[in-house]
UniProtKB/TrEMBL annotation, chains A, B:
Pfam families: HrcA, WHD_HrcA. Residues 1-59 form the Winged helix-turn-helix transcription repressor HrcA DNA-binding domain. It comes from Paucilactobacillus oligofermentans DSM 15707 = LMG 22743. Residues 104-322 form the Heat-inducible transcription repressor HrcA C-terminal domain. Negative regulator of class I heat shock genes (grpE-dnaK-dnaJ and groELS operons). Prevents heat-shock induction of these operons. GO terms for molecular function: DNA binding. Keywords: Repressor, Stress response, Transcription, Transcription regulation. The gene is hrcA. This is Heat-inducible transcription repressor HrcA.
Length: 346, 346
DNA sequence: TTTAGCACTTGAACGAGTCGAGTGCTAAAA
DNA sequence: TTTTAGCACTCGACTCGTTCAAGTGCTAAA
């Protein structure tokens, strides 16, 4: 456990370092502490803090820099009341237009707004659609053997995909299959729809058409697309600004990571419903050792929970960023509820 | 006009510099020229070349580097027969799958293939759709006030967009409008459809519905989307590798440019149907002074002409890159024709 | 016209010296 | 016992001079 003075010193070090980027020495600290003590005393205290692993030197006679553990302690114990600027709240509210036609549009826009505010890179995920139920398949002929398949869920998600009908496929057959699917699978959760599509449906379809494989692949394809979770990434290029490492290869690797949804989702998984901060090596991913990740869920009542996340440098203004995330998750939840109410309640 | 020996020297300088990135001195050149001359002679010749503005020194005692004018001369007069490696041709052919459901997919894939091959950044634009004709509007109700509007052109382009019907809008009214539009506008070129939508159609619609504005905006919106030209960008992140300038601000500005289609299209406009090379300052855009841009059209017969382009460093292997572009435009045209034939000829 | 030779220029790499900001430690003061 | 003043020490950043290699331009001879 730290003494009051040690806390003060650690806090001052983090504040100073995150805002200037320079290691902090005993003299500067002496001028910035609430109680006046000499630089020598501070040096002694810093020696203790270093022994505890909270701060570190870059070289033997440099000032101190917070370590991962130090940031951790700061975030857990020394954070300001996360006061969110009213102007920021106003910006958030005004940035959402009202002309959203899809949940995805809200989510994508969210990532951009949040990255503009924080100047970092952000991720957003819409509420889990796992429990969403199939409300209908549609098939729209486009002429010339082309067909657009559309799947709609009761949570308002729409996924469409074009495909081409094999020449040997009969349109009537296709229509009956669609009817069958709508009859049998409407109202079921997407997960179950997927399994049914692989199990009993092929069996039943046999009666209607002679080559059912191609069609089912299409449904499979579009369905798994609809039920797959895709992160929207905002402010990708901000990374260039706050990454310390400007080596092209490292950057390319990082950007590769941002494009791989599977890898992202393991990294961004929020542990609980609070605002979660992972610092440097705590984000078990070598590429992200110099970054901090703030993740949070947002709760859209019966429509499920989504995720927002901010990726910034370890030396980020934690208080401000956490405040922004906190304000943002609320506003986002509100926007989504608005959206759902506008279109689905009556 | 350059003497044979001057040509040889310029050629050797460009070759050497593009492959090593190091300024080239008289000694190295002496070893690499077809006819054996002393380094002193070469120094004299280089002095002439420099006076003509074809090469330049980085500092008073450094080797020479090609200038923009020098590259220009090289590209115009000294290029190898652009022999394309058979293996590259094979790669191009194999990289196109056959499971394309949309022209856009082919175009997007093209940008990726070409950027992988060149290791540079590439742009592709599908054949001009200006002359494409509207073959139909579709309107698919998705439930809960939501509707998906689909527009299909005779060139097989499909554009869809969700929107929400205002509560005061009558579905029957909407249907009659759709019918009207299909009746009146099918078969017309998209450009004309756009103007008609703004001129006589609103007048006619008045009879069918009391608040025509919202609907027409939607049509307008989706139509201009369909007829807008959008470049696909491949290998964005390759830019990190070949840009000399690693300054985050410059990079961000560059990436900003890649996302602005309007600005791109002024830059990428190919002057004619040959393969066009613009070097450094010739690409009238300050941001691109250290880059070279190779643009070319590809010709898909009656379906129009599209554009492909490669953005690389001024010191790129011109011969190889031009060869690749040349082979690629042919294969791409073939792929598109295949696609069209597969789906539109009977 | 070409070439050998030579004086000259330049950036890169290296070491020595200085400076400033920081440290740890000791011994005296509180 | 805690705090502080003082001091020797360390290290990176910077400057300066030196050396080295790779170039150059120019001159005079071949």
């Amino acid at each position: 456990m730290l003494t009051k003075r040690q806390s003060d010193i650690l806090q001052a070090i983090v504040r100073h370092y995150t805002s200037t980027g320079q290691p902090v020495g005993s003299k500067v600290l002496a001028d910035n502490l609430p109680e006046r003590v000499s630089s020598a005393t501070i040096r002694n205290e810093m020696a203790s803090l270093e022994e505890m692993g909270l701060i570190a030197k870059e070289h033997s006679s440099s000032g101190r820099v917070p370590s991962t553990v130090g940031y951790r302690y700061y975030v857990d114990n020394l954070l300001d009341q996360q006061a969110v600027h009213e102007s920021d709240v106003a910006i958030i509210q005004n940035s959402f237009g009202q002309d959203f036609n899809k949940i995805d549009e809200i989510v994508a826009r969210s990532a951009d707004i949040l990255s503009d505010l924080t100047t970092f890179t952000t991720f957003t995920l819409k509420p889990e659609q796992k429990m969403a139920r199939l409300s209908g398949f549609r098939l729209v002929p486009l002429g010339n053997q082309q067909v657009m398949a559309i799947i709609v869920t009761d949570s308002g998600d729409v996924e469409s995909q074009n495909f081409t009908i094999p020449r040997d496929m009969n349109t009537d057959e296709l229509e009956s299959v669609i009817r069958l699917i709508n009859d049998q699978l409407s109202g079921l959760p997407l997960t179950e729809v997927l399994t049914r599509l692989q199990q009993d449906i092929p069996f039943k379809i046999k009666d209607y058409m002679h080559s059912p494989n191609g069609v089912l692949d299409i449904f499979d394809n579009i369905l798994s697309h609809a039920s797959s979770e895709r992160f929207f990434v905002g402010g990708k290029m901000n990374l260039l600004g706050f990454s310390h490492n400007h080596d092209p290869n490292t950057l390319q690797a990082l950007y590769g990571l941002l494009d791989q949804n599977e890898r992202l989702s393991t990294v961004l998984d929020p542990l609980d419903d609070s605002i979660n901060v992972r610092i440097g090596s705590e984000i078990s991913n070598e590429l992200l050792d110099d970054f901090s990740l703030i993740t949070a869920t947002y709760d859209v009542d019966q429509y499920g929970k989504g995720i927002i996340a901010v990726l910034g440098p370890t030396r980020m203004p934690y208080s401000r960023t956490i405040g922004l995330v906190s304000a943002f998750r609320q506003e986002l939840a509100k926007q989504m509820l608005d959206y759902y109410h506008r279109y689905y309640d009556q």
